[in-house]
Here is the input.
Amino acid sequence: MRKESLSIHSGYEKDSQKTMAPPIYLSTAYEFDDTQDAADLFALKKMGNIYTRLTNPTNAVFEKRLASLEGGTACVSTSSGMASIFGTIMNLCEVGDNIIVADKVYGGTTTLTDHTIKRFGIVTKKFDPNFADELESLIDDKTRLVLFESLSNPNLVVPDFEKIVKIADKKGVITVVDNTVATPILCNPIKLGCDIVVHSTSKYINGQGTALGGAIVDSENCAKKLKNNPRYTHFNTPDLSYDGLVYCQLPFPPFATRVVLCILRDIGITASPMNSWLMTNTIESLSLRVRQHSQNAMQVAKFLTNCKDVESVNYPGLENDKNHKNSKKYFNENNFSGLLSFCVADFEKAKDIVDNIELFSIVVNIGDSKSIITHPASTTHQQLSKNELEAVGISDGLIRLSVGLENIDDILDSLKKVIS
Ligand SMILES: *Cc1c(COP(=O)(O)O)cnc(C)c1O
Here is the structure.
């Protein structure tokens, strides 16, 4: 099946009630037939539900659906996008290890990788995903992953996938791609040779700003890379916390299996079944929404390009944009998402626009059907120092728009009232 059909049908098999919409299983735990049944489930001699911190049938429908859209082997839903990134790092790293992170990523990812994981003894090095020239020299024996975004929030950088994958494969290092902004409709990192995809499903997959969620998608590439790789001995030697199990010898995708058996078990970053149920429904219209968001954003980008108040517009859909070439090469269709950013002269001018615009809400979210305006320097990136702001490419005059699904003429009318 193709994506539009997968997003509607995959993952759900009707039970005896034949409900068209998947049921919500709000159950913390599951009954065992007898002690043998319980022992077999715990020993993974048979597969089944034990406790919702590990697995839940409502979560499973959403996980299968997203895995199929990404071309992955398995998916684990998490409580938020940040939980999926933290869980992925925890699944690969221990004290003394290092990770290599794109220099322009989501603000929460920047604070997590620059500050929080430092306290766990994990070091972060930075690379430029556009060129990736320095990537090979940054990788050492202790490097466990390379993390970047397929379309970065808020700078809209499209990485040079081919170069990054080539270097990471040569060195046997796992690539982790945050595919939140591009969504599986526009980009499929696993098909481009990457190993793990993470998502904040709170954004376009939810599409209406009603629920937080995240996901980790595993792949065939990742299973191959983990096997007998000296960087990942904990996937190839007995796990003493789980009966001496060796993840790469199981008949299941090793990365996702370890996320469930260790990370969900011990850290509990599990998705709420209620939220997964919402995502299972909203993902059905993802392709239509992403295309309309993209077309609206394209028109907004073209309008802003011609405004004298605007110094620059970042939108990969514009032919002269520095990310246009990579997005044409790596994206599935001639659409470029609903996210764009532009620069005005200074903080005061940005404040004037943000405070006076109609229709757009001042909100730190993206991917909602409702149009959103954000001033990163005073909100999402406020915790970063001046130097850090400069390093992630955010100036005082930068404004981010998440263009919604309203009629394009209403969107343009509201912009015209505050920007000329
Ligand atoms: C929002 C976002 C996250 C964090 O997701 P939450 O669901 O808010 O925790 C991570 N990466 C990107 C690219 C995002 O836009």
Summary: The chain is about 35% helix and 15% strand.
